[in-house]
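Try it yourself: sequence plus guanine, in.
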Amino acid sequence: MITCKEYVEIKKEQLKERIKTLSRKPKLCVVQIGNNPASNSYIKGKKKDCEDTGVIFNHLHIENYEEVSQVVLMDMIRTINADPTTDGIIIQLPIPDKYDVEELQTCISPDKDVDGFRKDSYFNPCTPQGVIDWLKYNNYDFEGKTACVIGRSEIVGKPLARLLTDLDVTTVLCHSKTPKVKLTKLMADSDIVFTCINQIEYFKHYDFYSWQDVIDIGLGRGEDGKLHGNIAGDSVDKLKESNYGHLIVSGVGSVGLLTRCSLTENVVYACELHTKGSK
Ligand code: GUN
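Structure, out:
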């Protein structure tokens, strides 16, 4: 099995080659409002990926947003959207509460919504797509498998369940309203468990079984300021020992790389669509 890190390096080389065949360089615009420390760090990672592959990175950072209304912000995003050399636009989340995110997202056309957040986007959300692409690259055997996806967010759990279903995986989507006893039973019946909830260190090694592949996707920052997964860190280590020969993926340090990789690929694909026939 090629690790997420190794896979991302291979993909970056492939993207570099794809970009060489285009009539112009792809361009990503990241809109950041405010100064969320986590966002600063995510954006830094996205910038690095763009630089590594040859994608132009444009960072529109509105630090002092007090005077900036929803309408003004919508106008700014519409202006960027109208730029024919911009292939992808993302609004880095979270944004300050005074703005309506969904309304802002409607200012990005579906062919430039590289986050895959709009229902009519040309792209799949980056985290589930990145995870599935990595599994596919490793020729992961989906045939006949049953998966339990825990978490029903619009950008991770739901699209992940759809992608798995499209791959003929029998998939159940569990969430915060799934009774605990049912969740335990559904997890026990699954060959693969994907955790994508909003709570860090919620699961322990004894919540899983020795025959299972376990992929921890959900991330959050702990009181220590560090990133933690949905599964406690020491439990991930215990699972790696006890589920020998099975896939145990800790979200920390791997899923973020896959998400970013998928974002860069979406920008390259958007540029391919936008420049079709111009070379
Ligand atoms: N904030 C944390 N992750 C993401 C992401 O993937 N996209 C956007 N737009 N904001 C985020």
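One thing you can check immediately is this: The chain has a mean pLDDT of 96.
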